[in-house]
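Support request, priority: normal
Reporter: lab tech (M.K.)
Component: structure prediction queue

Hi team, I submitted a job for WYL domain-containing protein from Desulfofundulus thermobenzoicus yesterday, and the status page still shows it as pending. I've pasted the exact input below so you can check whether something in the sequence is tripping the parser. The sequence length should be 342 residues. Please let me know if I need to resubmit or if it's stuck on your end.
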Amino acid sequence: MGSRQQLERILEIDRQIRAKNYPNATRLARELEVSERTIYQDRQFLVDRLKAPLAYDRRRGGWYYKDPTWALPSIMITDGELLAFFLSVEVAQRYLGTAFEAPLRSAVEKIRMGLQGQVQVNLEELRTCYSIAAPPAVMVKREVLLDLHRAVRECLRVKILYYTASRGARQERIVEPYHLYNLRGDWYLVAFDHFRKEMRVFHTGRIEKWEVLREHFARNPGFSAEEWMAQAFSAERGNAPVEVVIRFDPHQARYIRERCWHPTQETEELGDGSLILRLRVGGLEEIKRWVMGYGSRAEVLAPPELRREVAEEIRDMLRLYQIKSHLPPNLSGNEKSCFTQK
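Reply from support: The job had stalled in the queue. We restarted it manually and it finished. Here are the results:
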């Protein structure tokens, strides 16, 4: 707060000097509602740190610039503002992907070099005070993102060789790029796919070859990235949203109620401390993986097909462990039958 207020006072002092008001400490202290000592400290900052050619005119009783062409530095920010920018860059570097590490660090260094004499900041010292963990993201070439950004901006078609991980297959596609978004460090492209004749999501890290074509396309004016993403859960989006209902036991409910998992979510508190979470999303595969991560502390109540898929996955997992290590001998008959029934 103090640094920001000092900056505002310095700007006011400079304004009055350029207006030939010949301000002095007494008058400025009264106008800015601070002590004369504070104004003298601001004057010292102007002279010592900003190298202002400040002088006192005895006849007019105030300050003026001996060199009227002198100007305040074009960039004047506080320590707190530079720290905030540094942290935003550190976050961006990790969540936008390492392909941007070099240009991001270059931007910070240029700003730091331009602030010598105004705000002294040791970037390496800042890094000893703050640490931001990088998510496990798929590597993506910076050139891919830059070319896709241009294609989105200029409405240009792109030819891509895309690796579909679920099928283990590669296929050439012509796409019309609409939107890029980042999820936990991974970059995704929302585009109209000429092969599927519909909007699809492509992981940019699986684009093996690409060419921005000279062919323009007419963007659908009804497309809204916000509405599109509202139907997705994580990176998956199906065609028709369905209501997903999940019950979390009292222990896990403590953590579930802390976060916003989806824009459509609704929660219902139960008497025993458990919680029911309702979402409207399209595509259930990502939801299935997410809910299974909570093990026995989460139960899918709806839709029936998601509950069935989770149950089948659990049975498949049990078979895997039965084959490798057999069931523990202390399981009761009922427990064994519930694991082995089809």
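The two ends are 66 Å apart (CA to CA). The chain is about 40% helix and 25% strand. Let us know if anything else looks off. Ticket resolved.
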